[in-house]
Amino acid sequence: MVRAGLARLWPHTAGELPTATLAVNLVGALALGFLLGRLALAPDTGWRRTLRLGLGTGFMGGLTTYSTFIVEVEHLAGGADLLGAATYLAGSLVAGVALAAVGLWLAGLGARRRTALPTLGEPTGQGGQS
User: Fold this and answer.
1) Is 61 marked within a binding site?
2) Measured between alpha carbons, how far is 104 from 123 in angstroms, rounded to an integer?
3) What's the pLDDT tens digit per position in 21-67?
4) Where are the domains of the chain?
């Protein structure tokens, strides 16, 4: 419903780049990469599994849409804009994979920063402690 609502707020005409679907799919790829990267740091059980299935598969899977994306590619190609259709198809796929990778990287970066900082009461390795 979110994606469909955005498409109504941010419409495109035939032959134009479907920016609403593109934006939603790219934001969804980044967010899903981040979510799965964070959840992968521990076993997929309990609330983590529920969050992965509910937010990842459910919400983000419904937010992003491969079927609408393909229909829009077909409309561009059917309107004789083969270059636009091919660019939208390839660009969306490459950018989506890249943003999912950025999401995974950001999730790992946050995890590394948190584990790199000593907590109160832990030795820091300074001052001759072993």
Assistant:
1) yes
2) 30
3) 899 999 999 999 998 888 887 777 888 888 888 888 888 887 787 88
4) 25-40+53-112
